[in-house]
Fold:
Amino acid sequence: MHIEVRGVSKNYNGHQAVANVSFSIERGKLIGLLGPSGGGKSTLLRILAGLESPDAGEIYINGKLVNNVQPQQRGIGFVFQNYALFKHMNVFDNIAFGLTIRKTDKAEIKRRVDELLDLTGLRGFEQRYPHQLSGGQRQRVAFARALAPRPELLLLDEPFAAIDAKVRKELRTWLKGLISTLGITSIFVTHDQDEAVEVADEMLIVQQGRLEQQGTPISIYTEPKTAFVAGFIGHSTVVEEPAALRGFELTKLSQGTQAIIRPEFVEVGREQEIAFPSAAAKGTVRHVFFRGAHLELDVQVGDTRVAAHRSLDQEPLQPGEEVSVLIHRLYVVSEQSAVMVENPLKVDPLPVHI
Amino acid sequence: MKGSKSRSILPGFGLSLGFTIFYLSVIVLIPLAGVFVKTAGLTWEQFWDTVTNARVLASYRISLLTALAAALINLVFGLLIAWVLVRYRFPGKKLIDSLVDLPFALPTAVAGIALTAIYAPNGWMGSLLTPLGIKVAFTPIGITIALIFIGLPFVVRTVQPVLQDLDKDVEEAAVMLGAYRWRTFRRIIMPELIPPLLTGFALAFARGIGEYGSVVFISGNMPLKTEIAPLLIMTKLEQHDYSGATAIALVMLVASFVMLLIINYLQWRSNRRVAAV
Amino acid sequence: MAGAITAHLSEKASQRPKHITESPVVRIVLIGIALLFLALIVLLPLASIFVEAFKKGIEVYVASVTDPDAISALKLTLFTVIIAVPLNTVFGIAAAWAISKFQFRGKNVLITLIDLPFAVSPVISGLIYVLLFGAQGMFGPWLAEHDIKIIFALPGIVLATTFVTFPFIARELIPLMQAQGVQEEEAAASLGAKGWQIFWRVTLPNIKWGLLYGIILCNARAVGEFGAVSVVSGHIRGETNTLPLHIEILYNEYQFSASFAVASLLVLLALVTLVVKSIVEWKSSSQQEAKE
Structure:
């Protein structure tokens, strides 16, 4: 195991920023550390870097305990949210800084910086100062600077947060490509799930200082383990009384159980369009939103409102229209778990175990 | 200040600019021009003889050297005080912070007599230093101490905001790249502080050259030894030697204008850099 | 070039993880040196004034500060301040309005010219008025003819004080108003507000703390000005002596206790200035935080 974190906790003036977090990461993986703002992601990253010391727990890099190793000695590259470039140094000197600290000889520094300039597409900019660069270029300099001393591990704190939405997409793809070419183990913090899903090999979902789930983007999306993850990942509607929904009255859900429904779990249409009309309930279209590739519908079923998608190829529905609503499945959630439950009416009246 | 168009919809441009220029001219520009007019009444030889007189040259030298020494000392201690105030926590910090402004608020004559009382041979510090053979009052050292008092806030107050706004990130970036404290200070923090330090130094130096009230009491005013240039102007005036006084003043004025231009250039340059990033 | 830099100590900057601060020993040593330096250079003179003032007992102190010459010096100082400070306040607001709300050529030159009095030695600030209005000055003969006294009289003292304190308020307001931009004023104008309405209802509330701060600094300097006033006053006891000049005369006559007693009054004023300044800084920073 390349990186291993065991039982790490950190308190700030009574606020539990990181609570008993354990995970391990294999060499060469690109990890997305995802969670809401203020959830402890950045603190966790800073603890890995050695910029903060944990109150409890151990951190191993290559099997070696690094708790008492100073950040200067950990061999970790760090890309800061606002890049933290050295304003008074040009691009070349920024990138070379870590090498000059290590007393690398001049020719070797030149060779390494040149290599990174080519890698990051900054060739020709080496004499520029940070204030003469665009946001994307600054990001690349920060990246090159962190990579120059050949770190074992690269940490990136919200690397795309300060960049225009347009350039951001381009940079993400570039970064993913670059990291996979270099094969360097990397962890990046983000609060944007699209970004995490798109870029990461594996995701760590962190909330209120706790690690909620670790896994590939697909596994986290399809098999959320906790209520938080089920609600946080993807677009979803929280349903207070799932037992009132057509089909789910058979599932013997206890009173007060909550459920989460994703739009793709819901089929909405005129009666003849629905595959299992017997499993569908009557509902009313409240709003129709155009979402580019598809339409999003806000539909009222009984006392519940759910979101659903509809293809642009299908016949359009109007607000106020009576429709059939089939809820294929939902996540029944409790404090610590999320379990998927299929609509029993859809599959025949066979008993379903929760 | 971009974004405002050449024709603003706001009123009062003519009135406010007109009054500004009028008042500036009446209070500052026309009276200052008087110095040049008056000097123009002298022949070149008269002017040259006045300003190259041994006593005058000595006074320039004393003013320049003591102001330079005081500004250099303030550069070091001003940086230290700003650093301590911004970065460390200790009891009474707010109070100490206000105390730094005292030299701005205290009348110079009051500072002058107080420093003289302390450093006179029978004063608190004087009685400690005299047995060691160190004379402060009525020597250039005394003048320098008065100018340190006067100039201290300039350095502290120009460095402090810059130090306060330095991003922690940048220092942490240096740490992650392997730099320890001293190297981070030298290579990362110091380059950011050099512009405000230069500005603070220039301000303290300019103020020191012209300072009068805090210096006259402690200097002892011995010609060729502890007589500063502003005092010499005063002496010439008391002897009704208006041309002499004006000639000395002209040289000082030109020197201060040059300083002022340098200071404004420094501030303009650092503002531009801050604005650009 | 004034002390017109408002720097509010923020708590944030002093909370630092251990890798970006010094070791405790280094910290304590640095704090120690800084405090020792301040104690020697600033605190010691401050303390000495009160000690010297009360050296000969409270009676001498009271007698010194209630001496008719001291009272008349106080009156003259107040009178000077009452003229010079409002003049410079009006100027400061006008200059800051023109410079911060409009674009015109030569703006930087104008800002530099406003700074000029800071760069001029106080003695020269007095000298320039002697050269204009003194007996041998340019307007001297004409003034003598019409029996108008400026030099060695009140007008000269007011003029010199005004010159010395000229940039304080403008210097405080210009950066403040430049940072605030013109959006709020333009919004008010587009809603139909007229010139003075815009100023009183939009601009003034935004700049009031900065303005107050500038006035306090201007006031402190006006009260304490020594060099420039010394040149133009003529040192006529009971007539053209301001408080700082009175202190000098007493000192030169070896009436040290009396001199320090009067000085202690000015020290109190300086301390009040510092307190008000702290309050203003605190108010303006909390106003700023509320806006952010």
Notes: Chain A touches chain B at residues 49, 51, 71-73, 76-78, 80-82, 84-88, 97-98, 101-102, 130-131, 145-146, 148-149 (CB under 8 Å). The longest strand of chain A covers residues 15-25. Residues 204 and 214 of chain A are 5 Å apart (CA to CA).
